[in-house]
Hints:
Pnp Oxidase, Chain A; 6-stranded antiparallel barrel; globular; 19% helix; 3 domains; Thrombin, subunit H
Amino acid sequence: MAKLNCWEFKKCGREPGGGKVAEFGICPTALEDRTDGVNDGKHAGRACWVIAGTFCGGKIQGTSASKLDTCMNCDFYKLVLDEEKLVFQNTKEIQDRMTKQIFSVGLPLLLKTQKYKDVWTHLTGWQTNECLITHLPFKGGYPIDVHNNDKCTVSFIKEDSAFLFETEIIHVQYVPFPLLFFKYPPVIKKTPFRRNRRFSVNIPAKLYFDEGAVVDVLIADISASGCLLRMLSEDAAGYETVKSCRLSFSILNTSLENIGLAIKNTHKHENIEMLGAEFSNLNSEHQKIIKSFLEILGEGAG
């Protein structure tokens, strides 16, 4: 029997698609990737006691520290403790895992506020579930104009992923060292980091599948490593499960035939099937043509 996640046990309705999402939003527990698999749970579904902003006892809970005593007496916490027994991962182990996977001293951070579109700073320290500390950025020889309670977005890149979180400033320090203190983010979103710039296009193409089917598509965007395809035919339904295929299209008065594609993801946009794919067998001539095409697009985009 599958082990229950907290939203299944509590029936709070704040999981994606849940009945309380419109009123309270999706619970950070159901989005937290850093704890995926902890205590055999999905996301933080079996580590919810370390996540701020959960919906327990009929109200939104605050910081992890402020809710911990209540969680220790929770029926679900006791259930996880009993089911996991000797392999139960406790609060400190989970928090250490979350922090080590994400933050490191000196990590460059891109800060965006209502007044500043992008300002670079770097991480100097943190207290898990309490605060993050960075250097106070300077512009034109002066510290940036920020204040307590200012809302902001922070993003950074680590390894091959981009991360982003919403937070607010809780303290601005000028002496003895200029520092910014931020509220520790309850949720940090992770997305794949694209090393190659993508350009929006509208290129007719044909998609060939191994069983012989041919489907008309439009290339909606393209980069040196792959493309996003818009399926044109209603008969395309079902091909989203295919992992590889071949693509033919023309650019710069040149026909590129039977380019191998590895399908990476699928989604629907305005009820139209979209396929995200990587090129898998570009020869040197194809690479040169696509590179030249992208350079022209880049010049036009400024």
